[in-house]
Structure formats: structure tokens, C-alpha cells
Write a structure and sequence with these properties.
The complex is a heterodimer of chains A (536) and B (81).
Chain A (H helix, E strand, L loop, with lengths): L7 H9 L4 E5 L2 E4 H17 L7 E5 L4 H12 L3 E4 L6 H11 L3 E4 L4 H9 L6 E4 L14 E4 L21 E7 L7 E6 H14 L7 E4 L7 H12 L2 E4 L8 H10 L4 E4 L1 H10 L12 E4 L6 H10 L4 E6 L8 E4 L15 E2 L4 E5 L12 E6 L6 E2 L3 H7 E2 L11 E10 L5 E6 L3 E4 L2 E4 H9 L4 E11 L3 E10 L5 H9 L10 E4 L13 H13 L6
Parallel strand pairs in A: 1-11, 3-4, 3-5, 5-6, 6-7, 10-11, 12-13, 13-14, 26-27
Antiparallel strand pairs in A: 1-2, 8-9, 9-19, 14-15, 15-16, 17-18, 18-21, 20-21, 21-22, 23-24, 25-26
Helix pairs in contact in A: 1-2, 1-7, 2-3, 4-5, 6-7, 8-9, 9-10
Chain B lengths: L2 H12 L23 H15 L16 H12 L1
Helix pairs in contact in B: 1-2, 1-3
Classes of the chains: A alpha/beta (536), B mainly alpha (81).
């Protein structure tokens, strides 16, 4: 029988496979029975401290066993989890926390230095649950109650009584870059998560003997597969030590030692593994499936990877956060040269995908249009932004009333003669860099806040490994330099969004309509980037 | 200028990090303090190879060679000899 709520997956696996490993974090691990019991205790703690059905609770700590317990505890309390990027500056997170109304955070001692800044930046905090602190006395900011994991001990291991729940209740809200500088909260329900998880577990035959890696951060929807597909199958999810992303050879060895059988990540880490991981020397007998999503995987490197791992099944999964995965493509074994790009493939079970022309009519096969997605994985809307929701989430579109809304992705695509969708690009200035979705306008809005910046334009320079690098052209006043803007950005933006290159100009080129000519700047940035180094 | 100083200059001039470079000396814990992220590592290796005219092999890119600036300097020196 299918679960209707995400946390039921853990309870069900605790009943079927109580002693199987649920989560591995370095040297530590927990079984399904332990995970279920601890999450239940946490849910009791949250309820007795005022967390109500429908409340949003933040997850603010490095990805860890505690973070996973936190997620299930929040869900079991009937609340919605909001994962905060542990690497983002408090100023940005404060905006998100204020937007989502986060009064309570699951956190850890490593974040103690950020709690007060977070509150000062707008987070309406009144409760912190420090899950790695045992019985220590921890001081929090004024007016904030601090509970430690010791608080869990007095509570029962059985599930708390639940108010009537529905699968359309929100399970989590994932914040993504917003074009005007304010992050958008994508609301996903239990059904949204489970529709994707059910498809994925079935398609990739995930069973209790599998060991899934968890590379993606919890604020990325790739984590929905890692955590919840594992939970559904009773498989283990093995958290990838954060540092390993820097050391491809170590990462390859880790994949072997951890006996990972299913890997899911953005392509750039796989490219690093292919280029620098010495894969021919590392045998990975347990690895059977590699899934990738979030950015284009250069076929040259993908092809090499398929040659190095001949027994592994490879699949490209596609879809914005608003729909999780909507299409997928099984990578064939190419005998000769690989094609220049791969399709995003066909719609997943129960999901409908069409291309729509500018005039609103459906584009026939072969013709480019904007990708619209309908189905059970489509989001519930943007938190607190009815206007943006109404613009992109269409109900009653095309006269059909089957209950699922249609999401306008802003992606341009067409379907080829094999029935596979081919992705062409965006209608707007959203880019990907290392799998992260970035609105260039978000970065511009931040830079424009600096008193020394008169105006700016941020462009993307295509890059083979990380998809795009970011360059900012700035018209400044006074003594403005790279260091100053780097400092400014580090306080306001996550690292992956900060421009890597700055060029200061007296003015910026303009098009005939008076708007900044970003296309010309983009071209200049690209040629500067590919010019041979000056032999001085 | 010592190798350590040159390495620090390269890093401070090219890597994005929200901490304070004035705190970074040759024994500062680079990995623990997340001074380098995965994109920074790619950049750093290219910079080291260009600056010191050495070749850094895949097997060299392991944590023990990058924990501190002194470790990186030792790696670079070993490649030059």
C-alpha cells in the first residue's frame, strides 16, 4: 500500500526492516527503528513547544544525521520543513526565515555563532533545538529558548497522535534564487514528493539492499530522492562527507568503500571524477546506477564515464524545483563519437509535458515552445507570493479539470522524432552554475545595493566543467574594487552566486531601447575569457 | 617572497571566501574553515601550476596536501625538485 505522507515511509521501513541501516554519517549510523523512534521523540518535543500543524520549521545545520532526524521530526509533528543553506550568509537566510515565518529551527552547535545574526537579519526565532548538544547548557540569543537533544529523552518513541492529515499538506518549502533579489519559496506537498519518489523507486528498482549516496545539500530537491527513495525502499542513505567534493581521488575511493549502489548528483562533480578521480584505477563493483540532474552534462565527459563504468546504468533527470523531475532520459551506450548533447527525454509516469507557443497554442512535434508541465509532482505555489504563483501556475489550462495545475517552466524545448524532449534554453536570465539555479538579476540587485555601485550587469560565461562562470561589469563611484565587492557579496549572497570576475567600466553599452546591452557584454566576457594568457 | 607567501597571495587574489585573509597564516586550517570550495580547488590547482611551473597530478589532490598553506608549499616544492 502506498503511503500518503512522507514520514510514513520511515515508519513503514521501521516495521519491515527495523535493524537495517537507515542513515550513515561518517562513522555514525542509525537503523530504521532508531531513526523512527528518535524522529518521533523530536516530534513530541516540537509539539510541546508550540509547533502546530502547518507551521514551518527551519533546518539550519550542516548535512548530518541530526539534520535527517530533524526533517522527519518536523514532518511527524505535522509541520513543514524549510532547509536553509548552511553556507549562506545570515543576511540572506534572515530574509528567507522572515518570509517563511520560521520561529523554530533545528540546528547544531556549529551554527551557534550565526543564531543571533540570523535573528538580527529578520528571522522571528523563539525556539532552537540543538540536536548535537546532548545535555550541555547552551545560551541562545535573548528571548530564544534553546533545547538540546537531551530534551528528547523524556518523550515517547511512539508516533505522536496526528490531527487528520492530507497528502496535499506541505512537506517542505525550498527557496530558490529570485530575479528581483528576493528568494522564492517553492511549496511542495507530501503528494508532490511521493509521486516523484514512487516513480523513481520503481524505475530504478531501489530495494532495501541498496546504498544511496547523498551528495546534494538538503535545500536542493535532489535530496528528495536521496532521503525519501531510500526510506521507501528501506535502503541506506550514506551522506557524502562535504570535503570530498574537493578531492576527486578521495571521492572515488569513498564511493567504493561506502559501497554506494546508486549515485545522484549534479554533473559537475561527475566531470571532476572523470577528469581527476583516477577512475580506471578504482573499482566500483557495487555501483549500478548513476543519475544526474541540474545542469547539462558535456557528452564528451559523460561518454568517458560510461566507458569507465560499463556495468552502470546512466540517466539524465530533468525538471525545475517547481516540478521536481518531469522528464528523464536513459543514456545509451554510444559506440562512436557521442552526439553534442542529450535529450531531457520523456515525461515520467502520470506527468504530462507540452510545448506552448507565444500565442498560447500547443506547439506540434519539432517546433519550439515553452515547456508546460502538469501532474502530481507540480508544486503548490510560491509561499506568500500569490501574484507570482498566479503567473506561473495555471489552473483550468486548456479547458481540462483533472485536478493538477499546469506549471509554466520558462524553459524552451521541442520534442524530436523519437518522442524525446530537447532542452534549448531559458526565456529569461536564469542560469545554472554547478547545478545551482541562479537569477542574474538576483546578483545585480545585490550589487546595486552597494552605495558605490552606480549600475551593473552580470553575465554568464559558459564553462565546460561548471556550466557557467559569473562576471560582473560595474560602473562605480569612488574607490570601488574587487575586494570591496567580494566582501560585500560574501555578506549577502551564497558563495556560488558571488561573481568570480569584476570589470569596472565608465559606462555600460546600451541597446537602441536604452536598456543595458547584456548580450554584447556577454560576448565581450566570453572572448576575454578565452583569449590566450598575456605572456608578460 | 617565500613560497607560502606567494601561495597566500594567489589564494587571496583569486578565491572567494567570506572569512578574513588577515587571519590566514601558513598553518591556518583551510579545509576546516572551508577556505576552498570545489570550484576554488579547480582554480587553485591551475594557479599553482602556472605560478610555480609544476604539474600537479590527480593523486596529489588529497586532503593531506591542502590542509594548510604550508602543506601546499611542501607539495609545490616536492614537484619542483
Amino acid at each position: 500500500m502506498s503511503s500518503t505522507l512522507v514520514h510514513d515511509l520511515v515508519a513503514a521501513s521501521a516495521a519491515r526492516f527495523p535493524a537495517r541501516t537507515a542513515v550513515v554519517d561518517g562513522e555514525r549510523s542509525v537503523t530504521y527503528l532508531e531513526l523512527d523512534a528518535t524522529a518521533n521523540r523530536l516530534a513530541h518535543v516540537l509539539s510541546t513547544h508550540g509547533v502546530r500543524h502547518g507551521d514551518r520549521v527551519g533546518i539550519y545545520l550542516d548535512k548530518s544525521l541530526e539534520a535527517v532526524v530533524g526533517i522527519y521530526g518536523i514532518l511527524k509533528a505535522g509541520a513543514t520543513y524549510v532547509p536553509l543553506d548552511p553556507g549562506a550568509p545570515p543576511a540572506r537566510l534572515g530574509t528567507i526565515a522572515a518570509d517563511a515565518g520560521l520561529r523554530c529551527l533545528i540546528t547544531a552547535t556549529g551554527k551557534a555563532g550565526e543564531w543571533a545574526p540570523l535573528r538580527a537579519a529578520g528571522a522571528p526565532l523563539d525556539t532552537l533545538v540543538v540536536l548535537d548538544a546532548a545535555d550541555r547548557e547552551i545560551a541562545g540569543p535573548d528571548g530564544v529558548e534553546v533545547l538540546t537533544s537531551g530534551a528528547l529523552a523524556g518523550h515517547p518513541a511512539e508516533a505522536p497522535p496526528e490531527a487528520p492529515r492530507s497528502s496535499s499538506d506541505l512537506a517542505y518549502i525550498l527557496y530558490t534564487s529570485g530575479s528581483t533579489g528576493v528568494p522564492k519559496g517553492v511549496m511542495l506537498s507530501h503528494l508532490n514528493a511521493l509521486a516523484f519518489v514512487d516513480w523513481a523507486v520503481d524505475e530504478f528498482a531501489v530495494t532495501e539492499t541498496d546504498r544511496l549516496s547523498s551528495h546534494a545539500p538538503l535545500h536542493f530537491d535532489l535530496s528528495v530522492f536521496d532521503l525519501f527513495a531510500a526510506a521507501k525502499a528501506g535502503a541506506a542513505v550514506v551522506l557524502v562527507p562535504a570535503q570530498l567534493a574537493l578531492f576527486p581521488v578521495e571521492l572515488a575511493r569513498w564511493i567504493r568503500e561506502a559501497e554506494i549502489s546508486v549515485w545522484y548528483s549534479v554533473p559537475s562533480i561527475l566531470t571532476l571524477l572523470v577528469l581527476r578521480g583516477k577512475l580506471p584505477e578504482v573499482e566500483l563493483p557495487a555501483l549500478r546506477t548513476i543519475l544526474f540532474a541540474g545542469e547539462v552534462f558535456p557528452t564528451k565527459h559523460l561518454h568517458r564515464l560510461t566507458e569507465l563504468l560499463p556495468d552502470v546504468r546512466f540517466a539524465n533527470l530533468f525538471g525545475p524545483t517547481e516540478t521536481n523531475v518531469c522528464t528523464w532520459y536513459e543514456v545509451p551506450r554510444w559506440t562512436g563519437e557521442p552526439p553534442p548533447s542529450i535529450p531531457i527525454g520523456k515525461a515520467i509516469t502520470d506527468v504530462e509535458v507540452v510545448a506552448v507557443r507565444e500565442d498560447g497554442s500547443i506547439a506540434p512535434p519539432g517546433e519550439v515552445g515553452e515547456l508546460y508541465v502538469r501532474g502530481p509532482t507540480v508544486m503548490q505555489g510560491y509561499w506568500g507570493d500569490a501574484e507570482r504563483t498566479a503567473r506561473t501556475l495555471l489552473r483550468d489550462w486548456n479547458g481540462e479539470h483533472d485536478g493538477f495545475p499546469v506549471y509554466r517552466t520558462g524553459d524552451l524545448a521541442y520534442v524530436d522524432e523519437n518522442g524525446d524532449w530537447i532542452f534549448l534554453g531559458r526565456r529569461d536570465s536564469q542560469i545554472k552554475s554547478r547545478g545551482y539555479r541562479i537569477e542574474l538579476g538576483d546578483i545585480e540587485a545585490t550589487l546595486n545595493q552597494h552605495p558605490g555601485v552606480v549600475e551593473c550587469a552580470v553575465v554568464a560565461i559558459p564553462d565546460e566543467v561548471v556550466t557557467n562562470r559569473i562576471k560582473a561589469f560595474v560602473v562605480g563611484r569612488g574607490a570601488l574594487d574587487d575586494d570591496e565587492l567580494n566582501r560585500f557579496c560574501s555578506e549577502r549572497l551564497p558563495r556560488y552566486m558571488a561573481p568570480e570576475l569584476y570589470e569596472f567600466r565608465a559606462d555600460l553599452p546600451r541597446s537602441s531601447t536604452g536598456k543595458i546591452d547584456r548580450r554584447t557584454l556577454g560576448e565581450e566576457a566570453q572572448s576575454a575569457a578565452s583569449a590566450p594568457a598575456d605572456p608578460s | 617572497m617565500s613560497t607560502e607567501e606567494r601561495i597566500k597571495d594567489l589564494m587571496a587574489g583569486n578565491l572567494r571566501w567570506s572569512g578574513s585573509w588577515s587571519d590566514v597564516d601558513e598553518s591556518y586550517p583551510l579545509l576546516e574553515k572551508q577556505v576552498v570550495d570545489s570550484l576554488g580547488m579547480i582554480t587553485l590547482i591551475s594557479l599553482l601550476e602556472d605560478e610555480f611551473d609544476v604539474e600537479i597530478e590527480d593523486g596529489d589532490v588529497v586532503p593531506t596536501n591542502f590542509r594548510t598553506i604550508r602543506d601546499i608549499a611542501n607539495l609545490v616544492e616536492s614537484k619542483r625538485s
